[in-house]
Each structure stands twice: as C-alpha cells, then as structure tokens.
Amino acid sequence: MVPVFLRVRPRARRPGAPDAELGPAGRHGRAEKSREGRAGRMSRNWTEEQKDAIRARGGTLLVSAAAGSGKTAVLVQRVLERLTDPVRPTDADRLLVVTFTRAAAAEMSGRIESEIARMLEKDPENAHLRRQQLLLPRAHISTIDSFCADLVRQNFYRLGVAPDFRVLDDSEDTVLRSDAADQALREFYERGDAAFYEFVESFSSGRDDAGVARTVNRLYDFVRSHPFPRRWMKEKAELYGAGRPAGKTVWGRTLLAFARDAADYCISVTRDSLARAAEDEKIAAAYSDAYRSDLAGLNGLAEAVSAGDWDRAGAAARNFAFQKLRPLRGYGGSPLKNRLSAARSEVKSTVGKIASLFSATEEQCAGDIARLDPIVHKLFEVTVRFSEILDRMKGERHAVDFSDLEHLSLRLLVRETEHGFERTP
Ligand SMILES: Nc1ncnc2c1ncn2[C@@H]1O[C@H](COP(=O)(O)OP(=O)(O)O)[C@@H](O)[C@H]1O
Ligand SMILES: [Mg+2]
C-alpha cells in the first residue's frame, strides 16, 4: 500500500461562497466526473484540499488541520461516498471507523446517520440507501479501545486470554503494579548483583526504593506505547555500550545540527550588522573591526561544528573572544545603534548557548556513557522482569489493561519479523 499524506490547510469557512471551487479538477481522471456529479449535489462548498481528502483512494491518508476546519466533515463525506459509490459501493456493516473518545465515535455515527436520512428525504425510492440506513447500527464505529476489546474477545482462544477477561480498574492496577515492583526488586536484591546495586543507587531517592519503582513503572508505560517494546529496549540499550564518540551518538548528532544552525544564524546576523553599520560612517569606524573579528570567530566555530569535531567546537564556543566595541559619542537615541546593540547581544547569548551544549569534553562524555551502560541495561532487565510478574498477576485475575488490549490486537493483526512486521494471513 502506498501511503498518501495529505495536509489539509485550515481555511476560513465560507458557507455562502460561490461555486468556483467546485470547478472540474482534471487530475483524478474519469472517476472524478461521476464523483463530481454527486459532489455537485452536496450542499457544501468543499475546499480543494477537502475534496482531495474526500476522494483520495487506495492508500493511507493523513489529514492534519486545525480544530473546526472540517476534518470530521471530510471523514463523514468519505464514508458517504464509499457507501454510495456507483461502481463499488461498500456496505455500512463493512466499515471500521475508530476514534479516541466515545464522544467522537458517537458524533461520527450520528453525523453519518443524519446525512443518510437527509439523502433519503430527497431520494425516498433509493433502496440501496435504505439498506445502508438499516445496516448502519451494525457498522464498527467505536473507540480504539472498544475495537481492540472486541477483537480480543472474538479471538481469546488464539491469544491464551481467559474468555471472561475484564479490564483492570485504576486502583487495582496501582496495587498490582506496586506488588509486582516489590517482587521484582526483591529477586534482584536476593541475587546480590553489583550492577543492580549501582542501578538502585542511581534511581532511589534516599530512604526507600520508591524512586526505583517509579522509574520502572514509567519505562514500562513508555515502552508499551511502542508496538514492539522488547525490540525498542534492545535497540536503545545497544546505543550505550557501542563506545561511540559523543559527536556520533544520536543526541550528539542532534546537538551538532542545532549548533550548526545556531552558528549560521549568528553569521547571518553579524553580516547584516556589518552591512548596516556601513550606512553610517562613524558607526562603521567604531564597529566594523569588531564585527569582522566576530565573523572570523563564528566561521571557525561553524567549521568545527560541521566537521563534527566535538572538542574543537566546544573550545571555540567557550573561548569565543568578542572584541569590545569602540565608544560612539552622540548616538544616545540612535535607532540604528540600538538595533545593532540588540543584534550583538543576541549573537553573544547564542554563542553562550552553543558553549553550554559542549559543556563536557568528548572524553568525559565517553566516561559517562560507559558508566551508564550497565545501569541502563539493568533498568531494562528489571523492567522486563517487572512486566513478566505483572502479566502473571493479571493473568491470574483474568484482567488486562487498555495497553494489553492494544498489544493483543496487534499480535492478531501483525507478526513481528527481524526488522519490522508483516500482516498475519
Ligand atoms: N467547506 C466547508 N464549508 C462550510 N462549512 C464547513 C466546511 N467544512 C466543514 N464545515 C463545517 O464546519 C464545522 C466544523 O467542522 P468539523 O468537521 O466538525 O471540524 P473538525 O472535525 O476539523 O473540528 C461543521 O459544522 C462543518 O459542517
Ligand atoms: Mg472533529
């Protein structure tokens, strides 16, 4: 499937706007004409972007637009056009529409229902529409949680889930998590594992292990927001031990890219100042040398950052020598002078920010990473053990949480492969 990403720009609504926007759009070819015919009968003047979003077929579509700009309206219209497609109509009970909230699901089915009723008023003899009206209550229009729960309920025997499973309530969930954390930590204490003690040192907040349990819980929730949590943890753990220099780490590359942009920005501000200073002879005489010296330093900084030379970039930013500007008499309220002062302060503070990014040397970073490596591995190991114990406790109670339902559904729909996933048959 080829994903089609389409951004619908928010637009002012124009309820009474003329029909100009409904003019023929040739690029969808012949199929466009029959749809255009029906679009013509619609009471609304869709914007071009909305029309694209309504008609795009055969791919994944992402519609992103401001609140109130007509996303739900577009989705409802997509559904209606599928139901009434002259060539390949879809029956309402074949739809799957998932939302995040019950209110949104209710709004969707309500809007589809009233649109069908409105179309039937105009075309009472239309048997196909009448049939869709009857099928609509059987359409799957629900929250994502309720969709997953249905899927798991229908397939419990494939998943090893109890047929009478229930969704855990918050207070029970809290108790179980606390018990599971106690039990997991106790196991590691009993083993007397040195890396574990170091891990506890790093995360406990003094007297008890509440901080450790909190971290494990947070990581557990976070990794479960990924489709394949174990793989995610494995990939992240590998980012530590690799002995990579700071500039080659994920965060180091991000910082270098940021520093590069910031240095380029300072260069362009300073060039601009130099050009503006030239507009006034006295200002030029007092400031130009300092600006040229700034530019030389900034170019050196940008070059070190581009080369990915962590320590040289850090030194260039930390030791940046801004020359003092020569005094300018009689320019008290000069707008040009004020503007130039503001620009230079901005450059100075930006260079200061770059310096703070490189506050540790490459060697110090490597030391930190090496020290963190066993701690991070232990954090992941404890979290995995915590989740095994928690799963067992939930299993004994025939209980699941919403995230379990999502993961169980995913297991029905796709199979994890070495580097990604494939659909189940
Ligand atoms: N092109 C349009 N012209 C006129 N009204 C529109 C248009 N698109 C949407 N609307 C109306 O604007 C309102 C908000 O639309 P809605 O789909 O609920 O927005 P969203 O889901 O993006 O928050 C609805 O009353 C809808 O009928
Ligand atoms: Mg909406």
> Helix count?
17
Helix percent reads: 55-70%
Note the gap between the termini. 16 Å
Question: Mean pLDDT, rounded to whole units?
Answer: 87
Strand content: 5-15%
By DSSP, the count of extended strands is 8
Largest sheet: 2 strands, parallel
Q: How would you sum up the global shape?
A: flat
Ions, cofactors and other ligands present here are:
adenosine-5'-diphosphate, magnesium ion
Q: In CATH terms, what is the fold-level topology of the largest domain? A: Enzyme I, Chain A, domain 2
Quick one: CATH class of the largest domain?
Mainly Alpha
Derived structural class: mainly alpha
Please, how many domains? 2
- The unreliable regions are 1-41
Gross CATH architecture of the largest domain: Orthogonal Bundle
Give me the Rg, rounded: 31 Å
Widest sheet: strand order? 1-2
User: What series of H and E elements makes up the topology?
Assistant: EHHEHEHHEHHEHHHHHHHHHEHEE
Write up what this structure looks like.
Residues 1-41 have low confidence and may be disordered. This protein has helices at 30-41, 48-55, 71-83, 102-122, 127-135, 144-154, 156-159, 170-191, 194-203, 210-224, 229-241, 250-277, 281-306, 310-318, 335-357, 362-396, 402-413, and strands at 2-7, 59-64, 96-99, 140-143, 166-167, 399-400, 414-416, 421-423. The chain is mainly alpha-helical. The strands form 4 sheets. A two-stranded parallel sheet has the order 1-2. It starts with a strand and ends with a strand. It has 2 domains: 2-153, 3-Layer(aba) Sandwich (Rossmann fold); 168-425, Enzyme I, Chain A, domain 2, CATH 1.10.274. The protein has 17 helices and 8 strands. α12 packs antiparallel against α13 (281-306) and α14 packs antiparallel against α15. Helix content is 64%, strand content 7%. The longest helix is centred in the C-terminal third of the chain and has 35 residues, at 362-396. Residues 71-72 line the site of magnesium ion (MG).
